[in-house]
C-alpha cells in the first residue's frame, strides 16, 4: 500500500529530473553554437575585373602676366596699418579662382618695407602684394626675371623668406643649391604639374660668384637637364620664361626658336613674360608628334604702366586631360582660352584690374573695339 501511494510522487520526481536535464543540455548546446563562427549559406562567387576600364582625370592650368609694382601702385595700396592690394584684384578674383592651378609672374621682388621700398629701375615691393595674390587664387609665382637681383642677394633672399613663410610656392630664384634642385611639382585631381622658370638676364647685374641658384638664367643645357628630370616626375611640364623685346606685340625669331627647342625637349606649356604687352599664343608640334601650347607673352597684369597696350593683360588657360587605360597613361591638352583684362586707374590712383569687356565703364575709350582686337590677337587656331 505504501508503494502504491509513493508511485505518483516518484513519477513526479523523475519527470522533474528529466526536465531539468533536458534544460541543461539545451543551454549547453546554445553556448556551443554561440562559440562557433557563423557560417552563411554558400553562394556563387562573383569576380570584379577592371580589365578594359578607362579613367579620365581633368584639370585646368592657367597663368597671368607681370605683377610689376611701381611706386604709384604701392602708394595707392597704402593704409594706416600697411598696404592692401586685395581691392585691386577684387573685380577679377572670381575668374582667377576658376582654374585648378594658377601661376603669376612676380616681376618685382617682395623684400618688404624693412629694406626700403623702391620703384623703377630697381624695384622692391611690400609683402602684402603676395598676400593679395594668395587671396585671389594664385598657387605659384615665377621669380626668374630681369628684376630678380634689383636689390642684390639680400633682396632676393628676403623675398624667398617671405614667400616661404606665406606658403606661396615659388620657382626661378632659390635660397641655395639644394632648394634649386628641388622640383616644384603641384598635384591636383590626380594630375601632377612641374613648374620651371628661367630668364634671359638680370639687367646687367652680375650673379654673385658661386651663387647661380639665386636666379635661373636661360641656358639650353641646363634647361634640357631639368626638363628631362621633370618629365620623369610629373605628368605635365610648364615653363615660365622671361624673354623677347619690351613693348613688341609679336615674338621675334629668338623666342620662336627657343620655344621649339623647349617643346622638342618635352615642355608641354610655355608661359612667356617680359614684353609688358600681349603676344599671341599657338600650338607647336614636337619632334615626337606631340602638341604643346606656347603663350609668347601675357603682358602686364598689375602695373603702373599705361597706354600702347601696356595696361592690357589677361589670363591664359588650358585643360589637361589624363587618360589611364590598361595599355598605359596618356596626357593631352585641350581647349586653350584667354581672358583679357585691363588695369584701370584715375590720375595714378584707384588702380583696379577689371575685365577688358567692362573697361569702357572704367575709362578705356573704344573698349568694345579694343576687346575685339585683343580677342583676335590672342586667338589660337586648332
From TrEMBL:
InterPro entries: Capsule_synth_CapA (IPR019079), CW_Biosynth-Accessory (IPR052169), Metallo-depent_PP-like (IPR029052). Signal peptide: none annotated. Gene3D superfamilies: 3.60.21.10. It holds the Pfam family PGA_cap. Residues 60-305 form the Capsule synthesis protein CapA domain. Belongs to the CapA family. This is Capsular biosynthesis protein. It comes from Mesobacillus campisalis.
Amino acid at each position: 500500500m505504501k508503494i502504491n501511494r509513493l508511485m505518483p510522487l516518484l513519477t513526479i520526481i523523475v519527470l522533474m529530473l528529466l526536465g531539468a536535464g533536458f534544460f541543461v543540455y539545451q543551454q549547453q548546446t546554445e553556448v556551443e553554437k554561440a562559440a562557433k563562427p557563423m557560417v552563411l549559406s554558400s553562394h556563387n562567387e562573383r569576380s570584379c575585373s577592371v580589365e578594359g576600364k578607362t579613367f579620365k582625370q581633368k584639370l585646368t592650368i592657367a597663368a597671368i602676366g607681370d605683377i610689376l609694382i611701381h611706386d604709384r601702385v604701392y602708394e595707392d595700396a597704402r593704409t594706416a596699418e600697411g598696404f592692401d592690394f586685395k581691392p585691386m584684384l577684387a573685380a577679377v578674383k572670381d575668374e582667377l579662382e576658376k582654374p585648378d592651378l594658377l601661376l603669376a609672374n612676380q616681376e618685382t621682388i617682395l623684400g618688404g618695407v624693412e629694406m626700403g621700398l623702391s620703384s623703377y629701375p630697381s624695384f622692391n615691393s611690400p609683402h602684402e602684394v603676395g598676400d593679395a595674390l594668395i587671396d585671389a587664387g594664385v598657387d605659384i609665382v615665377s621669380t626668374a626675371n630681369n628684376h630678380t637681383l634689383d636689390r642684390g642677394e639680400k633682396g632676393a633672399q628676403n623675398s624667398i623668406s617671405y614667400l616661404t613663410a606665406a606658403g606661396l610656392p615659388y620657382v626661378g630664384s632659390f635660397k641655395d643649391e639644394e632648394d634649386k634642385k628641388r622640383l616644384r611639382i603641384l598635384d591636383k585631381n590626380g594630375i601632377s604639374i612641374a613648374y620651371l622658370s628661367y630668364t634671359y638676364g638680370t639687367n646687367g647685374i652680375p650673379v654673385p660668384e658661386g651663387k647661380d641658384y639665386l636666379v635661373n638664367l636661360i641656358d639650353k643645357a641646363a634647361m634640357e637637364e631639368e626638363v628631362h628630370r621633370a618629365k620623369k616626375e610629373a605628368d605635365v611640364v610648364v615653363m615660365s620664361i622671361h624673354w623677347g623685346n619690351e613693348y613688341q606685340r609679336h615674338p621675334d625669331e629668338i623666342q620662336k626658336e627657343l620655344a621649339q627647342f623647349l617643346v622638342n625637349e618635352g615642355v608641354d606649356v610655355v608661359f612667356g613674360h617680359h614684353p609688358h604687352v600681349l603676344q599671341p599664343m599657338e600650338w607647336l608640334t614636337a619632334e615626337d608628334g606631340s602638341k604643346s601650347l606656347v603663350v609668347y607673352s601675357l603682358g602686364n597684369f598689375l602695373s603702373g604702366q599705361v597706354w600702347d597696350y601696356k595696361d592690357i593683360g589677361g589670363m591664359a588657360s588650358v585643360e589637361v586631360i589624363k587618360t589611364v587605360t590598361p595599355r598605359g597613361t596618356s596626357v593631352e591638352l585641350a581647349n586653350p582660352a584667354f581672358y583679357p583684362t585691363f588695369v584701370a586707374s584715375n590720375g595714378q590712383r584707384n588702380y583696379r584690374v577689371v575685365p577688358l569687356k567692362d573697361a569702357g565703364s572704367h575709362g578705356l575709350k573704344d573698349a568694345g573695339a579694343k576687346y575685339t582686337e585683343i580677342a583676335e590677337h590672342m586667338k589660337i587656331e586648332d
